[in-house]
Amino acid sequence: MTRNIGKFFQHEFWRDEEGQDLVEYALLIALVAIAAIAFIPGLTGAIQSVFGRIAAALGAAAA
After folding, report:
1. Any idea of the CA torsion for 52, 55, 60, 63, to the nearest 10 degrees?
2. How far is the CA of 23 from the CAs of 7, 18, 26, 59, in angstroms?
3. Half-sphere exposure of 19 toward its Cβ, with a 13 Å CA cutoff?
4. Model pLDDT for residues 11-54, shown as the tens digit of each residue
5. Secondary structure of residue 29 in the 3-state scheme
6. Nearest to 59 by CA among 18, 51, 46, 42
7. What is the chain's alpha carbon radius of gyration, rounded to the nearest angstrom?
8. Apex CA 46: angle with CA 44 and CA 52, to 5°?
9. Alpha carbon distance 17, 23 (integer Å)
10. Is the pLDDT of residue 7 over 90?
11. Alpha carbons 4 and 43: distance in angstroms, whole number
């Protein structure tokens, strides 16, 4: 009986890789989310600076 259980785990459980892709995608999404959270505060200042320069240039052109 224990021999059959051992064969089951060896052949079916350890070689079944259907859920592996899902775990890899979840880890990849988590890594991208962490990177985005880390870089967003730095990007907001840069984006505000760019739009500020654009607004100043448009204001100067309209005057």
Report:
1. -140
2. 25, 10, 5, 51
3. 5
4. 666 566 667 788 889 999 999 999 989 988 888 888 999 999 99
5. helix
6. 51
7. 27
8. 100
9. 10
10. no
11. 58
Q: Which residue has the tokens 């907001």?
A: 44
**H/E stretch holding 25:** helix 20-62
Q: Is the pLDDT of residue 1 over 80?
A: no
CB proximity list for 3: less than 8 A, separation 6 or greater: none
Tokens of 30: 């988590």
The token duo for 17 is 């890789």
Q: Which single residue is written with the structure tokens 């990007």?
A: 43
**Token output for 4:** 């059959």
Closest to 47 measured CA to CA, from 39, 57, 37: 39
What's the one-letter identity of residue 18? E
